[in-house]
Design goal:
Blueprint (H helix, E strand, L loop, with lengths): L8 H8 L3 H9 L7 E2 L5 E2 L3 H14 L4 H8 L5 H32 L3 H11 L3 H16 L6 H9 L10 H14 L2 H21 L8 H14 L7 H18 L5 H14 L2 H14 L8 H12 L5
Antiparallel strand pairs: 1-2
Helix pairs in contact: 3-4, 5-6, 5-9, 6-9, 7-10, 9-14, 11-12, 11-15, 13-15
């Protein structure tokens, strides 16, 4: 058939796979107007109607509304313009759906109350600026006013979540949990104590900062002890505790005595808060970082061993 051939609605239905009813509807809307009419008054269409109907079906499948489709087929607006606007709208819808899915998943997992679900929903919908304000206020409570040393600025930056513009569902879910955790008064108080301990140790050390994080010292000495199956009450554990204490005493410039052991015990117990470790795990999910290594086993072992070697 050539370009002068005219088609009935039935012909178009067979060629396009659309129903006669759908084609008649698009024709009535002016999207695919008839080229002519038969002597009996039936609508007839040119070959370009096939291409228009194929385009209409594709755009409808992509979710475009009929007024926009008519502007596209009539070349009142360009297809790239429509595609860009629609893609942006879909991105917003996808983000909204991810937020809803994350909240519902968290509610299902945790058996949340209606009040908790309402809070999670509000946290999930925060804008980027609102998220930064919430976390900034939390970190300010933990570290603010203690020390102007750049080391604290680095710590605060390393603990700041950066939710992507198009986050995955697990990132949104992690953000909601982290935001809730950041508002826990007891967790905030623990983080503040940890920061105060860092300042006190740095002042005792008399340098720009501790040369070695006590938790890292514990990790290095206790890891082999755990691998060897050494019990915290055994004589071999005495050697591990002595080695850690010797290094810590050297760093802070104090003798290894009861007071220093109690001081280190307090610091490690504060560091070993499971909520702090959970915060770091959630932070890694949100920021797309590798999961942090847990020091809970090493810290648990050493805290138990150290506590047993401090006189009541």
């Amino acid at each position: 058939m050539d370009g002068d051939t005219l088609y009935s609605i039935g012909d178009l239905a067979r060629r396009t796979g659309l129903t006669v009813k759908a084609i008649r509807f698009y024709s009535d809307c002016g999207i695919v107007p008839p080229t002519d009419r038969s002597p009996a008054g039936y609508r007839l269409y040119g070959i370009n109607a096939v291409a228009r109907l194929d385009l209409v079906r594709t755009l409808r499948d992509l979710g475009l509304d009929l007024p926009t489709i008519r502007k596209v087929v009539d070349r009142e607006i360009s297809l790239p313009e429509v595609a860009a606007a629609h893609a942006e709208a879909l991105a917003v819808q996808i983000r909204t759906l991810r937020l809803r899915r994350a909240v519902l998943t968290a509610v299902a997992k945790r058996g949340s109350t209606p009040e908790e679900m309402d809070l999670m929903h509000k946290l999930a919908k925060l804008s980027e600026g609102e998220r930064r304000h919430l976390i900034g206020e939390f970190l300010g409570t933990a570290f603010g006013g203690l020390d102007a040393n750049p080391e604290f600025v680095g710590i605060m930056r390393s603990m700041t979540p950066e939710l992507p513009d198009s986050p995955e569902a697990e990132q949104v879910e992690a953000w909601v949990e982290l935001a809730e955790l950041s508002q826990d008064p007891d967790f905030r108080a623990g983080m503040r104590r940890m920061a105060e301990h860092l300042v006190a140790d740095r002042a005792q050390d008399g340098t720009a900062g501790l040369r070695r994080d006590p938790a890292a010292v514990v990790r290095d000495h206790v890891g082999p002890a755990l691998a060897a199956g050494i019990d915290t009450a055994s004589p071999q554990a005495d050697l591990v505790v002595a080695a850690v204490m010797a290094q810590y005493a050297h760093v802070v410039g104090s003798p290894d005595d009861v007071h220093l052991r109690r001081r280190l015990l307090t610091r490690l117990e504060t560091t070993n808060d499971p909520r702090r470790e959970r915060y770091l795990q959630l932070l890694a999910v949100i920021n797309g970082w590798s999961a942090p290594r847990s020091l809970a086993r090493e810290l648990d072992w050493f805290i138990q061993a150290l506590r047993a070697r401090i006189p009541a």
